[in-house]
Specification:
10% helix, mainly beta, 8-stranded antiparallel beta barrel, single chain, 181 residues, two-stranded antiparallel sheet
């Protein structure tokens, strides 16, 4: 009879344990056998490490002056193609500090909009170095700081390279880096 009770108890523990998240402990400190349920909490990390994806893009740009030198503010609009964005656009708002000798310091923000309307936002710094032929070479270092849609938790960094030619109505800028989302 003891073997039957023992087997029934083990079976009950097994089936009860499989059907609940709680752990079962046998309490024999009182008369008879009692089951006591104890909750075990396993903390899972709330942070998710998003994989990094390569980001590359190329855009044709137009520039609109918003304020004159010496702190030149502009709106740069670009249309082109980029990985993870498809046919896309960006709007950048740089300020170029022309009060110091070259290379001129640039700071700004940008919004990149994917083909489906999802966006990611960047903050950037960089320099513009005049060339001897009236053009300038700019290198900009973007940090991805926020976004919407699938880019809601985006992060990463991208580098922009461009040749600025004030004599032309449009320019070309390329981006390369990594994005996580």
């Amino acid at each position: 009879m003891k073997k039957v009770i023992y087997l029934m108890t083990l079976s009950l523990i097994f089936f009860y344990g499989c059907s609940k998240e709680d752990s079962i402990f046998l309490d024999s400190s009182q008369e008879g056998l009692k089951f006591q349920s104890a909750s075990i909490t396993l903390e899972k990390s709330q942070s998710r490490i998003a994989p990094k994806f390569p980001f590359k893009g190329s855009y044709v740009t137009t520039v609109e002056a918003l304020s004159p030198p010496p702190m030149l503010s502009q709106r740069i609009t670009g249309y082109g193609q980029a990985t993870h964005l498809g046919n896309s656009m960006f709007v950048a708002l740089p300020t170029v500090n022309l009060t110091t000798p070259p290379p001129f310091q640039i700071i700004g923000t940008a919004i990149f909009t994917a083909a489906n309307g999802d966006e990611f936002n960047t903050e950037y710094t960089g320099t513009s170095t005049p060339n001897g032929d009236g053009t300038s070479t700019a290198v900009l270092y973007h940090d991805i700081v926020s976004g919407t849609g699938r880019f809601a938790n985006a992060s990463g960094s991208i580098v922009a390279n461009t040749l600025i030619n004030p004599a032309l109505p449009s320019g070309l800028i390329t981006y390369e880096g990594n994005i996580s989302y």
